[in-house]
Write a structure and sequence with these properties.
Elements (H helix, E strand, L loop, with lengths): L1 E6 L5 H13 L4 E6 L11 E7 L8 H12 L16 H7 L7 E8 L3 H4 L2 H12 L9 E5 L9 H18 L5
Parallel strand pairs: 1-2, 1-3, 3-4, 4-5
Helix pairs in contact: 1-6, 3-5
The structure holds flavin mononucleotide.
């Protein structure tokens, strides 16, 4: 059984979370972790996990990616843009799908403030899959936290690894994921 973790990332945090989810999944299935812009043959994978950073409460779009580049241009922010930052991201990938993957789960990253103020990119992924492609996830979405200075909050990589493990267990044993 194989799984693929597809991500979009401006500053690297969502990439690191994607890799940790992949680590957790790899206890159960063969797994690849790739930027969503690299493309993937979804039919080759029994599980597709997809994630993005939260921008303006939801999925990044071209204007918010431009804003991210402006943040990174300020040397005081100490942010480095990912090589794929301006390539089409998860929003565009979702728009290109005519059917949902057979089994999928969504994750996001967002700032560590109450969700009601932060929004959540994973909810944007779920909305598109559920309401337009009429498909339900194999597990509840997960959102991982960064500080207001765009560093991963302590413990989030472990939590991502654990979420990946629970997804792997869910798809291989058909148990509900935690
Ligand atoms: C233009 C822009 C808008 C953002 N808007 C939000 C937001 O509405 N809510 C939130 O929690 N975080 C917001 N953030 C913070 C991002 O969620 C955070 O930078 C991201 O999770 C880090 O992931 P990355 O390193 O993979 O880009 C925003 C960041 C940028 C650059």
């Amino acid at each position: 059984m194989t799984a693929i973790v597809l991500y979009e990332s401006m500053f690297g945090n969502t990439r690191e979370i994607a890799r940790a989810i992949g680590d957790g999944l790899s206890d159960f299935v063969d797994v690849q972790v790739k930027p969503v812009s690299a493309g993937a043959e979804l039919a080759d994978h029994e599980l597709v996990v997809v994630g993005a950073p939260t921008h303006a409460h939801t999925l990044p779009q071209p204007s918010s990616r431009e804003d991210a580049a402006k943040w990174a241009a300020d040397p005081e922010q100490h942010l480095v843009l990912e090589p794929d930052a301006f390539k089409p991201g998860v929003r565009e990938w979702l728009e290109s799908l005519s059917t949902a993957p057979t089994a999928w789960a969504a994750f996001g990253t967002r700032v560590d403030i109450p969700r009601i103020f932060a929004g959540d990119a994973s909810a944007g992924i779920e909305r598109r899959m559920r309401h337009q492609l009429h498909s339900r996830p194999v597990a509840e979405s997960a959102c991982f936290l960064v500080t207001t200075k765009n560093a991963l909050v302590d413990g989030e990589l472990d939590r991502a690894r654990e979420w990946g493990r629970s997804l792997g267990q869910a798809v291989t044993t058909r148990q509900p994921a935690r």
